[in-house]
Amino acid sequence: SSELPTDAAASYTANQVIDGSLETSWVEGVDGPGVGESFTLTFPAPLLVEQIGMSIGFDRDDAIFTANNRIKQATIRFSNGYEFEQTFADTRGIQTFDIAPPSPELAEVTSVTVVIQDIYPGTRFDDTCLAEIEVWGRTP
Known about the structure:
Helix content is about 5%, strand content about 45%. The protein has one helix at about 60-65; strands at about 25, 40-55, 70-80, 85, 95-100, 110-120, 130, 130-140. It is globular and about 45 Å long. The model has no long low-confidence stretch (mean pLDDT about 90).
């Protein structure tokens, strides 16, 4: 998917969502709020995903968090075809949710894709941000 070009102030690449820091953020790079934009995390080996946590905006501080768009709703899609909609509160910090596929064979995956479906609008910028994603699970 897209990303805002790196500038002298910061990098906004998808790698920012797995750097362990809420000070950095992936920022989509299309005109408008970025609904339909996505990113994919690919795991080095199959994983039984049990929980995901996401910080749904640019979480460096309160001012930058509210200035930019935040993810309100996203489709969470796994490599095996299992997907669901997740709605987020408009709050800073990691929001966690359990993964409960309808059958055990749908739990083993090699990647997860997050697709932006709706946003909380920013007060200053029309860019949607994601500071961090964390995936918890175990090997099959």
